[in-house]
Amino acid sequence: MYFHSGPFRVIISLLIIFAIGGCASTNQQQPPQLSPGKVAIVPARFVPESNLNVYAKGKNAAAGELAGQGAIEGAAVGAVAPLAAGPYGIALYPFIAPFTILAGTVFGGTFGATQGLMHGLPEQDARAVSAIVENALGRLYIQDQVATRVMEQARTSGYNVAYLPDPGPSTIKEQPEYQDLATDEYTAVLELAVTSIRFVAHKGDPPRLALEMKLRSRVVALSGSSVSGMRDFDYKSRPHVVEKWSANQGRLMEEEFNDGYNKLSQYICEIYFPIVNHQ
Amino acid sequence: MSVLPRKMIMLVIRFFFTPFLLVTVLLAGCGTTPTMYEAKSIDEPQPLLLGDNEVLITGKIIFIENGKSKAPYGLGRPNWMLLHNPDDLGPHLTEQMKLGGREIWGDLYIPFLSTEKDGSFYYIVPAGEYLMKDVVPFYYTPYIFPAVSFNATQPGKIYYIGTLSIDIDTTTVLGGLWGNYINTLNFLEVKDEFDSARQTILEKFPGVDKKIINKALMKRLPGNFPTLFDPLAGMEFLYIH
């Protein structure tokens, strides 16, 4: 109780205040950037990965899977927790650890199984979700949908960009160097790859599903002062119950996909093609 | 993916380690203290009296927990914090908040803000630009960085800043006695309910001039995204993972 009450928050605030000024160190890397010049926007050419999260596989599957994982994790936490008490914990470790490990195993296993049973989708819904995912994956041009929107928004903001559909990576691991494009006066390449599409089950009665899309952007500097690097973007839809997703021939899904494409392209443009810097 | 919420695991670790952390950090004694401002909350209907550089901000915060609205609120009312005239609103705040947010400040910070039972709030604060630094139902962890800001710059005005709707999945341990954990931040949006809010304002502040009621909805900061964050993040070197 103590950890989450008002006094705890005050303590946290004090900690934060005292920590200002360099108590913590961070490793900061320069984020990828595009400098002014001709930029090639290149979509990936692979089909995004898809997997249901464990709650969307069905109650029984979720309970079994989470119970095992929970027990292992609980045991691990139980094993290291006494060490966190410093010299006292280390000195008393042989006496404390057996109890904390046992407690962690039992608690973690029970917790995982309960979570799976309580919040897993009913088996019938899980099958319906699988059908939805397969249908979604069968959609073509997912990669192009985002990249073309980025190109349009960037051009509207006055940037010099070109859309090149061919040279992008054909697998998630491939990272082309695009050196050929340097001779065409491109200063940088912005490669956009939707890496995964998932329907994630969220708690509720009945459970709800949300569409999640993950996008990897990669800047490859060819000349000028662009900074090469990668940055990830996520889109999460509002959660809906399964019936809503499948109603009206999947119209909601169409809308949420479109919203996802628009939001992702907006996020990308905010980072790489900001309006404020161009006015 | 971990079965046990990360925050739950960290709580166990911290139970053992926090006394050491407190001593270590307090002894270090580094840093400067930003200025705290205590906002005046108006709960009962009354004539509105604003100081020279003051505005009234109003809106709602509604948490949807595991598919159900938490309003009308009991103990788990929203607990939130504002920064006045933030130092910068660049596209890197989300990343900084994930590191604990200790470098993000303004000329004032206004902590411990809450809401009424229905999620609405009425606070008198200095005029200016504001960043909502964190928001969370009371007695929940980790915190939420909503990545929204608003402008309430003209003294003497009432600013409606919108309804912040936040959908979260949570896990409760021992009926909440040992904590409530936000597992995922599912969705966050700002809704425009200006018409009904204006009506409520007119009832709550008898005699108020309609012309001073402005709409200044919270907006997502470009390049930033709502995220869960741990205020102790960035101090992991002090913890065992």
Task: Count all strands of chain B and give the number.
Answer: 15
Structural class of chain A: alpha/beta
Question: With helices defined by DSSP (H or I, 4 residues minimum), what is the helix count of chain A?
Answer: 8
Instruction: Characterize the largest beta sheet of chain B: strand count, sense, and whether it forms a barrel.
Output: 8 strands, mixed
Low-confidence stretches of chain B: 19-31
In round numbers, the mean pLDDT of chain A is 77
On the 0-100 scale, what is the average pLDDT of chain B?
86
Radius of gyration of chain B: 19 Å
Q: Estimate percent helicity of chain A.
A: 40-55%
Number of strands of chain A: 6
Report the structural category of chain B. alpha+beta
What is the overall shape of chain B?
A: globular
Helix tally of chain B?
A: 3
Distance between the termini of chain A: 52 Å
Oligomer designation: heterodimer
Beta-strand proportion of chain B? 35-45%
> Kindly, what is the distance between the CA atoms of the first and last residues of chain B, rounded to a whole number of angstroms?
15 Å
Major sheet details of chain A: 6 strands, mixed
Low-confidence stretches of chain A: 1-6, 12-27
Write down the Rg of chain A. Answer: 24 Å
Secondary-structure element series of chain A: HEHHHHHEEEEEHH
